[in-house]
Each structure stands twice: as C-alpha cells, then as structure tokens.
Amino acid sequence: MTTHHGGAVIYAKDLKRMAEFYERVVGMRVCRSAKDHIMLESGAFELVVLQVPPRIATTIAVTVPPVRREETPIKPVFFVESIARARQVAPECGGTVNAAQREWSFDGVTVCDGSDPEGNIFQLRHARNDARG
How far apart are CA 63 and CA 49, in angstroms? Predict the structure, then answer.
C-alpha cells in the first residue's frame, strides 16, 4: 500500500469522463472506485474525483469546448513523463494542454497549464529539460 503525502479532490459532473481524463493524460491509475467517487493515484499523490450531487449537477452547464474556470484560486500540479504526450492525448479526452510555445521553466522543470473536460485548470510539470518534453 502506498503512503500518501498529498492530494486533491475535484468535483465532477461527469465522474467517469473526468477520472478517465486524469488517468490517460496525467498517467494516474485507479486504485478505488464507488458510485460517487473514483480515487486515482500516482506515487504519493492521490486524486479523488467526486460526483457532484444530482441536484447541483443539473445547474452546471459544461460547454464543448469547456469554458476554462480561470477564476478558481487553486490549480493542482501533476508531474508527467511527457508534456508533449499529454498535449496529444488531452483533446481525445475532452480537455486541453496549452501549446508548447506557452511552456515555461520554473525551479528547474518545464511547466505548462491545461484544462480538463469540465474547465478546471491544472498544471503539468516535467523534470527533463530536453526537446522530447
């Protein structure tokens, strides 16, 4: 069993779609699921995708493409093997990763933002500083 050191909870209108997005784009794996949540993990980080209650879900409109929720004061960060690969997979799963021209360097890693199928902003970080990014 993995010892977790941190994590995040993301509320989702479409539980399965959101969990699949983080599984495929970020490379997390499902470790537990139930009717109202799916728990994913990657190393010591845990992400719980939690189903928004139906009475609230009916009030949430998700557009295609989703409107980015830029006003949210929190942005989860995920370390990935390749930002370029995540950029290719994200649209297949309903999300986006910003273009390579919008990447930057922070504390010795390459960084790029994106948004999931419901418009939540996240950040990807990649430890290698080479063209395979």
Answer: 19
